[in-house]
Design brief:
two-stranded antiparallel sheet; single chain; 3% strand; mainly alpha; flat
Length: 229
């Protein structure tokens, strides 16, 4: 069964691709915003694990939980974790930092692992892996850059200004790693061009954007090429 990796993909799609800037702000200001965000998760989980929903996912000596019940628990725990994060930031003054952001993701992934069948944690299906790399390259990397820039300079414009321009650049760069022939030279040339444009135009992006964005291109590009070769 491929349940765990499908849940991982569904989580990143719901938590990043479907969570727009508007919804991210709305969930911090309104209960309805939180409801809309949290509900995207079980809907996406169901869509991605549909063939397995009637199967037992968690089996113990005392009880068995099928996919529907596990997704219900995952939605509940996702809501609790997000409510706690918002409460910590607004009521206790905890900084909305990179560390907090990454910790939040660790907690969510741990819950996915807890409610997945033990035998579903092997290598993911090819299409799931490629789709997951695409989401990580696009929206996860953008959000990570946002938090890192906020930590260093107290502000970031990566999610407002030229967001999709940078995502497009990363997709082109990573796509070059998948080409036959002289793919390495093409990818190296593209990365060199990005650095050249950055300095030629008076550093149009931050060094964090430049390093993290292109680091993601190289890492995920090579990872995807290795899997598909």
């Amino acid at each position: 069964m491929d349940i765990f990796w499908r849940l991982i993909l569904a989580h990143f799609v719901a938590d990043f691709t479907f969570q727009t800037n508007h919804i991210a702000n709305w969930k911090r200001e309104s209960r309805w915003g939180m409801v809309v965000h949290v509900l995207t998760h079980p809907v996406t989980y169901v869509a991605f694990t549909w063939p397995y929903l009637s199967m037992p996912w968690v089996q113990t000596r005392w009880f068995h939980l099928d996919g529907w019940v596990c997704i219900g628990f995952l939605a509940l725990f996702h809501w609790l974790e997000d409510e706690w994060r918002v409460w910590s930031i607004q009521k206790t003054g905890s900084p909305d930092s990179t560390k907090f952001f990454l910790w939040d993701q660790v907690v969510h992934i741990a819950m996915l692992l807890a409610f997945s069948p033990a035998q579903s944690n092997a290598q993911p299906e090819t299409w799931v892996f490629v789709a997951l790399c695409a989401v990580l390259l696009a929206h996860f990397t953008s959000v990570l850059i946002y938090f890192l820039e906020n930590d260093v300079w107290g502000r970031s414009e990566v999610l407002e200004k030229r967001k999709y321009h940078y995502i497009g650049e990363r997709f082109i760069g990573a796509g070059l790693f998948l080409l036959p022939g002289a793919w390495f030279l093409l990818a190296l040339g593209w990365l060199g061009w990005i650095f050249f444009v950055h300095y030629r135009r008076a550093q149009e992006r931050t060094w964090i954007n430049l390093v993290v964005g292109n680091g993601a291109v190289v890492f995920l590009g090579l990872l995807t090429r290795g899997l598909l070769s």
